[in-house]
Amino acid sequence: RADLIAExxxxxxxxxxxxxxYAGLDDARLRSHLLDAYRTQMAxxxxxxxxxxxxxxxxxxxxxEGRLLPLxxxxxx
Length: 77
Fold this sequence. Notes:
alpha+beta, 4 strands, about 80 residues, 4-stranded mixed sheet
């Protein structure tokens, strides 16, 4: 389940918190890890919103690192 779902002007923002020891990973290794670990979960969130006819963005929050990454940065970069 998602940690935060917010709506603004008809668009949905989904934020999922992921806690782990990511401090030692460079950006490429972090993206690779997040992609391997959470691709299916994030795709399900976006698919559910799409099935309801809703535009949605998905972000990953890494609270221990103080980072908030848009899904596109993680999965398309």
